[in-house]
Structures are given as structure tokens and as C-alpha cells.
Design goal:
The complex is a heterodimer of chains A (111) and B (879). In chain A, strand 2 (63-69) and strand 3 (75-81) form a beta hairpin. Chain A has helices at residues 10-22, 28-38, 47-59, 83-108, and strands at 26-27, 63-69, 75-81. Helix content of chain A is 57%, strand content 14%. By secondary structure, chain B is an alpha+beta fold. Helices cover 54% and strands 14% of the residues of chain B.
Chain lengths: 111, 879
């Protein structure tokens, strides 16, 4: 069964991750978990898409990473937003709103 | 900064850590949800999907990130290096300034000299396919004449029809004329050329058309092609000049075209008009009339050897067909570029070598300076090394500093070079410059960049390598006063190298200077001051009758001699140092046995009776000309000692008779006197057999007035111009040349070379002196403690000074010995430039030694005095 995330374009994945990080630094697993919980499991991020996306965004300096220790004593890599990332988030959120309202108009239009 | 540090967290090796952590956390969750460990792992594995593919993708991305980071770090480091280097250099302004100036002068001088070498020797001639162009000569060496000879018109015709390797052969001969149209009459230099002259060269008209073969026909309309310079100067760049009739030497010639601005005929002199020869078919100039210079263009693909073989074959056939004129005459082909630039090769390359030596000395100086600085900076570099900077990093830092110095010095040097090139362009005489324009082109720019890089490597590499050695540990331990025996020995040998190079240049300068002075001192055999000369040409159209010519010249002379401003006035048809000598008659001393080895030829001059005494030429035997020797009376002549020796074998030829030419109609000349030989071709040219003939018996329309002013030169010149105008106002007023400047021009080249190399030698001496001073000063500074101890223990201060001076003396002795050896080895290569001195000239070597000794002494004195005054207590306190 195709996972709901395969319907997501790569761009929206970026937007979702950026939004997640807006609430504070998180490591990769936590990002995926938070998205699942917030969407009540409607969106399940595949690890195969998540980490490449994280690396790409790090290369573009939208997010930064730091190695640290989790509460359980694990060595984890924590990502956080950069100012540039915040700007991207704002921009992409606005884009998404425009897109959604356009789609809504189309879908609600009478023949 | 923070970004970079954090970016570094994602590396290919970290990828696995991150992914495996995520995996474990998944497993933990499933276990918490109730699955068993094994099930949880299985579920997580399934969830993770194609782990391998994910890992690979992430690895690639992490790799990319790492590359970006590394590249940015690299450029950041370089930027940091540059900023640091700039700061360092600014903190040592004296050193930086000296270094940059030294480099700039060295690179600038080399660039300037190379621009001359490139323009004169290396640039192809400014014609299409210039490698096909060849200067053709006839070879009379089998007949005893060492120099290549010109052509006769029938010879040229034969060569043209019989050759298989040339696409064209063109001839030219001197053909200036007097222009008498609107404006002052003006004497314009130019050539008479064959119709295909411009075709062979491959030149096209800028306006109108150039000459063609049909113009060469004696019956064709007389046409002329003018240069761009003449067009601008005389005709104001007016296009309507095409089609206009100019009056040249009294005859009308129609202008048909204007040459391009960049055009220069393949001869060293300037030419502004080109007219076709228009030689009539039944002309009188036959197989003994050697008047034509010939250039040819080889067919594409033909080699010089093939063309030479072809030409030699033609010459051999002609020798058989016309033995009286062409026996033993061969062919001599010289590539046109070689023809024009050949004589300049040796001296120009010598100059190039000398100036390269100067740059070498400059680089050695800089290397020494940098080594000294390296010793002082030992501690700084050691700290950096201890803090983790690798050898490469430190090396790169030093290379950056050197590169900055080289860049600054090289850019300044380029400016100096461009300026120097324009100065040289004015100093280099036309005989050297010939066809080319001396300028800085792309090749010169590349050369300048190249030697800058080379210099940077030369002066930078050694000190940089030395600085990164393990010696850095010692510097930390023993403080800034690193006792670096090896390093100071290296600097000492560099100073010795500098001194030897300076010696070589000094010896070279001395030799060239002496050559020049020797040449100046040569007794030319004629007067070299106190007179001036002016050449005029009476146009044939108004002076067809020789009597008219004689009358006109005598008229002018009469006016001049009666003028109070003029002490004496005479005329000759060939002044000294004119470079000419077309005059050559095959003279046969009547009644003498022909030696058979070479045709007796003699160079003749027509002179007025007072000429010989005005020119201070000594009559050795017999008498001079008088007013009796005029047209109509028996032809007489005065030979020079060289001719007397050669043709009358030392017996007195007075009273003997000579025939002026081979055929029976040639006049017979009675010798009435012998005059001392004179060097009419230049101070370094041999004597030629010459005969002087009375002007009235052998008149010429082109003559040179020789005038001695009584007291005021300017009033004499004015008197001359007025006399000329009074006799014939249509004759253009000529240029006045003082004999002093004519004689000076003859040695202009040796003077230029001697001056240039003296400048280089002075620069080399200055650099060597700086080098000696630098090393001595540093050595004294380093040995302060030792010297202080010695002084405290009772050593006499003068003995300390003596010790330091002796050290300097050791450098000098070694440097001089090595320099002498090098100078002796190189001596042979410059022998072609010398005159009157051998390359192993003892006085020059002696003077070079003395100069070097003095310079070294002067350079060592200050450090020596400082060594005397070392105060032990303050030295110890300073440590």
C-alpha cells in the first residue's frame, strides 16, 4: 500500500520539516514522530525521504545540526532552524496557502 | 564561523551513526508498544525500507556537503593568508619597499630589453607569409669580394625567367627626388622599384592602387605611390591627391595610390615615394651595371635550400654564357628577416643576458633578505607549527607572502618596463630597428609575467623551505637568537654568488666601455670637427648639360667664398660616413701586371681642389688639384696610400696612368698625387683603395657642400642657404649636418651598448653592496653576545673590526675569483661586440677587482664599526 507520504512532493516535505523545527530543535526520529503524532498518523514520513531532505536543507543552510546526547544517553544529531530557514518557512507557508486557496476554488467551482 | 563548525557535523561517517540511532529508537518504540525485540527489529527493518539505498543517497549528499565546506575553508584560509601576509609586509615597510623596488627594477629592465629583442629579432616581418621572403645577392667571393653584391638588370631578367622556386622577384634602387609643387621645394627619400615590388611583398594600397608590372614599361604614364606619412605631412590627408600630378625632379608623376600607415619597405631607411624603374629595353645599363637590389618570394612549400640550389644553378649557367661579366659569380640567398635583423642579434642578446644577470642578482638579494627574516621569524613559525599548522600550511603562508611581493613587484615592474621600452624605442637607431616598431605586445606581456613567476620561485622557494624545517623546534627553545650555522653559511654563499655575478657584469661593462672609447679614438684620417655638410641634388631636367651643373656649383661656391662668414667652401659627391659607395669603377692601372686574383676596383670621389686641405687630409706625395684641372683638360687623379700599395705595389704611382673602366672608351687618368688613407666607412671599417678626381672633370648633380665657418656657425649656415637660393631658388634647402654629429652617429651603437651595460653593472654593484651589507649587519647582530664577551675579556675593538672586515673580505675574494672564472668563460661569446680589446683585457679585470674591493669594504664598514661598539651588559639584558 503506498504510504501517504509518497503523495507528498519533495517541496512540501521540506515545508513540513521546517515547520516541525519551528517548535524547537529536534533530531531526525523526533521530527518524524512529531509529524505522525500531529497528523494523527495521516502523514508518515519515510526515513528514506526524511534524511536526504534533512541533508539537502542543511547544505542550503536552512537548518543546522549539532551532535549531542539524548536523555537516554544516546549520541544524537539535533537539527535547528537558521534565520535563513525561518525566512524559507514563511515564504513556503505563504505559497502553500495560495496554492490551497486556488485548489479550493477550482474544486468548489460549479461547472 | 559557526555555520562552518556545524556543517562539519554531517560527514559520510556520521551518516551511519545517525541512521542507526534512528533505527534503534524505532525498535525501542515498537518494544514499548508491546512487540518482542526480534519482531520490533523486523518491523523497523521493514519500515526503514531499502536501507542500503538510503545510506548511499545520504552518503552522496554528505559528501557534497563536505566538499563545499572544504572548498570554502580553503578559500577562507587563502584569504586569511593574504590578509596576514599584507599585515606582515606593512609592519616591515623598509623591507617591503626595498623588495618591491628591487623586483620592479629587475623585471622592468628585463621587460624593456625584451621588448626590443622581441620587436627586432623575434617578431615576423610585417608582410604576409614573411618566411617566404628572401633577399637575393650575387656571390663574388670566388673573385675576392667578401660581401654579397647587387644585381645587374639583365641578370635579374635571367633569374626571373629561369627560376622554378620563386613566385616573384622584385628589384629596387635608390630613387629619392625633389618635389617642387606648392610649398617649399623638398627633398623626399624614396625608391625606384620594379612593377611587381608591392606584389612580391604582398602589400595593398590604403587608397587608390599600387604599382603594377605595366607601370614599369618605359612608354607607360609615369606614376608614383606615396607613403602615408608624406600624404599626411605634405598633402594634409587630402584624398584628392590621387590623380594629381607631382613635379619630381622637374618631371610630372601622377599619384595613383597611398600606402597603408604601417607599411615600411624592407630597408632600414625611411622612404616616402615609390616610382617604377621604367627601364627602357635598350638601356645602357648592361651586364656590368651592378645597381639593383633584389628581393624574392619563394613558392609555398619551397625551402631555402631548394631556392639556393635553384639560384646557384642559374648563376652557373650565366657564368658559362657570359664569362666576361659573370665568371665565378654565384648566388647568395639570405632570408629577409635574417638580412634585416642579423647584425643586431649578437649585441641584443648580449644585452638581454646582461639584464637577466641583474634580475638574478636581485633575486639572490631578495632570497637573502627573506632568509634573514626567516631566521627572525623562527619563533613565530614554531608557535604556529606547535599549534597544529601543518608544514604545508606554513609553506603556503610563506608562499603567499612571496606571491604578494612578486605580484606587487611584477606589476610595478611592468609599468617600469613599458616606460623603459618607450625610452629605448627613441634611443635605438633606425639601422637596428629597421622595419619594426619597438613596442610592448602580448609576447612581451607574457614574458613579463613569466619572469615575475620565475623570480618569485627563485627568491622564495629556498627561504620558505628552510623555514619549515624541524629547526623550528630549536627556535622555540633557544629564543629568537637562533644560532643557525647552516643558514648563515647559505646566506654567505648567496652573497658570494651575487658578487661573482656583479663581477661578470662589471667586466662586461668595462670591455664594452673600452671598445667604445677605442672606437672614438680612432684617427679617421679626415677632419672631425669645425665643419658642416649639406647635400643637394640638382634636377636632371634643368641640368642636362654637365657644363650647366659645373656652372651652378661654381656659382654657389663663388658666393660662399666671398662671404665673410665662411672660411672655406668645397664640394664632394660622396661625403665621409655616407654609407654609400655605389661608386666603383673597374680601374686598370695601365702597364701594371694584373695580379689576377680579383678585378682591380677602386672607389672614387669627385672633389673640388680645396677639399683635401679643408678636410685635413695629408698629401703624402705629389700634389693636390688646382684650378687647372677642369673640364676639357687631361683627366688627373689622386690615389690613397691603400690603392698605391695594392695596385702599384708600394712604388710611387705619381705619373702613372689608370683607366677608369674596362672598355676602350673609358677615360685615362694620370695620377698626380698620393693622399693618406682615410676611414670613410667608419672607425671600425678597413681602408679601401680610393681615388679622388677633380669635380669639374667628373661632375655630379648630387653633391655635398663642405663648409668651414669663420667664427659663427649660424651666420655661415644662413649665408649658405642664401647663396643656394640665389643661384637656383628651385633647389630645396637641405638639412645641415655638423661633422661632429655625423662622426658621433657612426659610433652611436657602441655608445648605446656601453651605456646600457654600464647602467646594468651599476645596478648590479648596488645590489651586491646591499647584499654584502645585509649579511654582514645580520651576522654582527646575531653574534652580539659573542662579540660582547670578547670585548669584555679585553680584545681590542680594532681587532674586532678587523675580524668583521676580514669576513667581508673573504666574501669578496671568493666572489671575485668565481666571477673572473665566469667572465673568462663567457668572454668568447661577446668578442664580436668588442673593438680594440680582447675579452681577456687585463686592465678591465684589474679595475673590476678594485671596484669590487672598495664596494665590499664600504658595505662592511658600518657593521664592523657597530661590532666594535657592542656593549656586553645591554646585550645580556636584552635577552
Amino acid at each position: 500500500m503506498p504510504s501517504p507520504t509518497s503523495a507528498l512532493l519533495q517541496g512540501t516535505l521540506d515545508l513540513v520539516v521546517l515547520k516541525t523545527l519551528q517548535w524547537g530543535p529536534r533530531h531526525g526520529y523526533a521530527i518524524a514522530r512529531w509529524i505522525e503524532q500531529t497528523t494523527d498518523d495521516a502523514l508518515r514520513i519515510e526515513e528514506g525521504s526524511l534524511y536526504p531532505a534533512l541533508y539537502r536543507m542543511q547544505h542550503r543552510a536552512w537548518i543546522t545540526a549539532e551532535w549531542g546526547t539524548s536523555d537516554e544517553g544516546r549520541r544524537i544529531k539535533v537539527y535547528s532552524l537558521t534565520p535563513k530557514g525561518r525566512a524559507q518557512l514563511r515564504a513556503q507557508t505563504a505559497q502553500w496557502a495560495t496554492c490551497v486557496s486556488a485548489m479550493t476554488k477550482v474544486l468548489q467551482a460549479a461547472g | 564561523m559557526t555555520d562552518r563548525r556545524i556543517w562539519r557535523t554531517t560527514t559520510p561517517s556520521n551518516v551511519d551513526d545517525e541512521l542507526s540511532q534512528h533505527f534503534e529508537m524505532l525498535v525501542d518504540r515498537y518494544v514499548k508498544d508491546g512487540l518482542s525485540q526480534a519482531d520490533a527489529r523486523a518491523k523497523a527493518t521493514e519500515r526503514f525500507g531499502e536501507l542500503k539505498r538510503i545510506r548511499e543517497e545520504c552518503h552522496i549528499l554528505a559528501d557534497q556537503m563536505e566538499h563545499t565546506v572544504k572548498r570554502r575553508e580553503y578559500f577562507d584560509e587563502i584569504r586569511h593568508d593574504i590578509i596576514y601576509a599584507t599585515r606582515l609586509l606593512r609592519r616591515a615597510p623598509a623591507f617591503t619597499l626595498v623588495a618591491i623596488l628591487t623586483l620592479a627594477i629587475g623585471i622592468g629592465a628585463n621587460t624593456a630589453i625584451f621588448s626590443v629583442i622581441r620587436s627586432v629579432l623575434l617578431r615576423p616581418l610585417p608582410y604576409p607569409n614573411p618566411e617566404q621572403l628572401v633577399q637575393l645577392w650575387t656571390d663574388h667571393r670566388a673573385l675576392g669580394r667578401a660581401n654579397p653584391e647587387w644585381f645587374t638588370p639583365p641578370e635579374l631578367q635571367d633569374w626571373r625567367t629561369q627560376n622554378t622556386t620563386f613566385s616573384g622577384m622584385a628589384a629596387y634602387q635608390g630613387g629619392g627626388a625633389t618635389l617642387t609643387d606648392a610649398g617649399d621645394p623638398e627633398s623626399i627619400p624614396g625608391f625606384l622599384v620594379s612593377g611587381d615590388f608591392f606584389d612580391v611583398l604582398g602589400v595593398h594600397a590604403a587608397k587608390g592602387r599600387l604599382l603594377t608590372v605595366t607601370d614599369d614599361d618605359a612608354a607607360a604614364e609615369p606614376v608614383v605611390v606615396i607613403s602615408n606619412g608624406l600624404w599626411q605631412r605634405r598633402f594634409g590627408s587630402d584624398s584628392s591627391v590621387i590623380g594629381r600630378r607631382l613635379t619630381l625632379n622637374g618631371n610630372p608623376w601622377t599619384v595613383v595610390g597611398i600606402l597603408p600607415p604601417a607599411f615600411h619597405a624592407p630597408v632600414p631607411t625611411q622612404a616616402d615615394i615609390f616610382r617604377p624603374m621604367r627601364r627602357p629595353a635598350n638601356g645602357t645599363c648592361g651586364r656590368s651595371c651592378i645597381v639593383l637590389r633584389v628581393i624574392g618570394r619563394m613558392k609555398p612549400g619551397v625551402t631555402l635550400a631548394q631556392a639556393q640550389a635553384d639560384a646557384s644553378g642559374i648563376a652557373a649557367r650565366l657564368a658559362q654564357q657570359y664569362p666576361e661579366t659573370n665568371a665565378k659569380v654565384g648566388a647568395w640567398l639570405i632570408p629577409l628577416h635574417e638580412q634585416i635583423s642579423g647584425p643586431s642579434k649578437a649585441p641584443l642578446y648580449a644585452m638581454g643576458g646582461a639584464v637577466a644577470l641583474v634580475l638574478l642578482i636581485a633575486c639572490v638579494n631578495l632570497a637573502n633578505l627573506l632568509l634573514a627574516r626567516g631566521a627572525v621569524r623562527g619563533r613565530e613559525l614554531a608557535v604556529r607549527a606547535a599549534l597544529g599548522a601543518g608544514d604545508t600550511r606554513i609553506l603556503r603562508q610563506l608562499v603567499t607572502e612571496n606571491a604578494l611581493l612578486a605580484l606587487a613587484g611584477g606589476s610595478l615592474g611592468l609599468i617600469v618596463g613599458v616606460f623603459g621600452s618607450s625610452v629605448l624605442a627613441t634611443l635605438v637607431p633606425d639601422s637596428i630597428r629597421a622595419v619594426q616598431v619597438i613596442r610592448v605586445d602580448t609576447t612581451v606581456l607574457l614574458f613579463s609575467a613569466g619572469i615575475t613567476a620565475l623570480a618569485a620561485m627563485l627568491f622564495g622557494l629556498l627561504p620558505a623551505l628552510r623555514a619549515t624545517r624541524a629547526n623550528s623546534h630549536e627556535s622555540l627553545r633557544s629564543g629568537t637568537r637562533a644560532i643557525d650555522g647552516i643558514r648563515s653559511r647559505l646566506r654567505g654563499s648567496l652573497v658570494v654568488a651575487q658578487i661573482s655575478l656583479a663581477v661578470v657584469l662589471l667586466v662586461g661593462a668595462g670591455l664594452l666601455m673600452r671598445s667604445f672609447l677605442m672606437m672614438q679614438r680612432v684617427d679617421l684620417g679626415y677632419r672631425s670637427q669645425g665643419i658642416f655638410m649639406a647635400g643637394i641634388a640638382l634636377p636632371a631636367v634643368r641640368y642636362r648639360d654637365p657644363a650647366a651643373t659645373i656652372a651652378a656649383i661654381n656659382d654657389v661656391l663663388g658666393r660662399l667664398r666671398s662671404n665673410p662668414a665662411i672660411a672655406s667652401a668645397d664640394v664632394t659627391d660622396l661625403p665621409p660616413l655616407a654609407g654609400g659607395g655605389d661608386q666603383d669603377i673597374l680601374a686598370i692601372p695601365i702597364g701594371e701586371a694584373m695580379t689576377g686574383k680579383e678585378p682591380p676596383s677602386i672607389w672614387y670621389r669627385a672633389v673640388t681642389p680645396g677639399y683635401l686641405s679643408t678636410m685635413h687630409m695629408r698629401i703624402v706625395s705629389g700634389r693636390g688639384f688646382t684650378g687647372e684641372n677642369r673640364a676639357g683638360s687631361a683627366p688627373v687623379g689622386i690615389v690613397n696610400e691603400e690603392a698605391a700599395e695594392k695596385y702599384w705595389h708600394g712604388t710611387n704611382p705619381v705619373g702613372r696612368v689608370m683607366a677608369a673602366g674596362r672598355d676602350s672608351a673609358a677615360p685615362r687618368v694620370t695620377i698626380i698625387g698620393v693622399v693618406a688613407s682615410a676611414r670613410h666607412d667608419g672607425p671600425n671599417q678597413p681602408y679601401k683603395p680610393e681615388i679622388y678626381l677633380p669635380y669639374e672633370q667628373f661632375p655630379a648633380r648630387a653633391v655635398t657642400f663642405v663648409i668651414e665657418p669663420k667664427s659663427d656657425r649660424q651666420s655661415a649656415i644662413t649665408a649658405f642657404r642664401e647663396a643656394l637660393k640665389a643661384t637656383d631658388p628651385l633647389v630645396p634647402s637641405p638639412n645641415i649636418n655638423d661633422i661632429e654629429s655625423i662622426v658621433g652617429d657612426a659610433v652611436a651603437l657602441p655608445r648605446l651598448y656601453a651605456t646600457l651595460i654600464s647602467i646594468f653593472a651599476s645596478a648590479a654593484l648596488l645590489l651586491a653592496a646591499l647584499g654584502v651589507y645585509g649579511v654582514m649587519a645580520f651576522s654582527v647582530a646575531q653574534r652580539q653576545r659573542e662579540l660582547g664577551v670578547r670585548l669584555a675579556l679585553g680584545a681590542a675593538p680594532t681587532s674586532i673590526m678587523g675580524m668583521i672586515l676580514r669576513e667581508g673580505g673573504r666574501f669578496a675574494i671568493l666572489g671575485v675569483l668565481i666571477g673572473f672564472a665566469a667572465a673568462l668563460a663567457l668572454g668568447r661569446t661577446v668578442s664580436s661586440l668588442l673593438f680594440g680589446v680582447t675579452p681577456f683585457d687585463l686592465p678591465t679585470f684589474l679595475i673590476a677587482t678594485i671596484v669590487l674591493a672598495i664596494i665590499t669594504l664600504m658595505a662592511s664598514v658600518v657593521p664592523a664599526i657597530r661590532a666594535m661598539r657592542v656593549d656586553l651588559l645591554s646585550t645580556i639584558r636584552a635577552e
